[in-house]
Fold this sequence. Notes:
By secondary structure, the protein is mainly α. It has 17 helices and no strands.
Amino acid sequence: MSGNDLEAEIQEEREKGRKKWDHPISFILAAVGSAVGLGNVWRFPYLVSKFGGAPFLIPYFLILFFVGMPILGVELCIGTFFQAGDADAFGSMNPRLRGIGLASVFAGYAITFYYCIILAWAFVYFGESFQATSNIPWLENTGEYFSEVSMSTGNITGAFNWRTFVCLIAVWVIIFLCLFKGVKTTGWVVKFTVPLPLLILLILIIRAAFLDGSKDGIMAYLIKWDSEVLSDPFIWSGAIGQVFFSLGICMGVMTTYSSHNSKTKTNVAASEKAISLSDTGIALLGGFAIYEMLGSMRAKCYNAAGVDRYNETAVLEFNATDPDKRKQCESYLDQKSFGLAFIAYPEGIYCAGIQK
């Protein structure tokens, strides 16, 4: 038997024994669910605002269409054709290429470990949100509460955070329950876990749009235009990083998911476009939701100080009499990193009146 015949036989046996998604939509939902994350919630909106608003979309969409989507398509093709994850798929091409697959698996593990920590923080917030509104611990100072939850105060000798640790264990248990029967359980779980957050996001956008100051937030997010930033090399590197991280390419995830598709009945081109465009659409929606709330928080700060934020003279006087307070008000539209997810979102939701 020749080497090609042996490889064909191995592929045939592998396809027969590999579990399949119960429906093509389950695969799409799982892939979209793995692609959408904090990169959509805070990093994409932050980069748009940082790099001059709408001009950031030019390098972003160029890289998405000419780099990200083609690579995603290749990964889906590799998984579907070889019916295996990265390590076995690249190893089937040539034994010397197996290291490429192993490297992507290692990257996936590294991301999973720190992402579970972030999910544990979210679990802490979720548990605390069941309290009466007056007792919710982050209302007085969201920044201090986030530092307490994440132990990010810089004091490594502080007390062990049992609450976050218990939530971390819960996260790993849930991951196990979602995966222990392979795509059979995952396909069922994603039908709930992917549409529900999107529905909540749409509710937040609609509710926040009626808040005072939401228009200012949208202006800061997307409407402003500074074309000079296109000459900055960092806008291009930022767009590349956002596309790769958000789509989850070169980490083995998409290859593994697509390996559970039918080898002969899967439309890879359609799947690739559905995944990438859904990911981008949710990122844009996430930006609208969060910057509407940030604009409302800024307006609330000015209103509490009795200052008309649209009156230039009043703002100048405010800056002269109380520069620290004015700086605090303007800082709401300059949130970055995890602050957008764990500081702005809780306070913004409270300001929107979406509370117990």
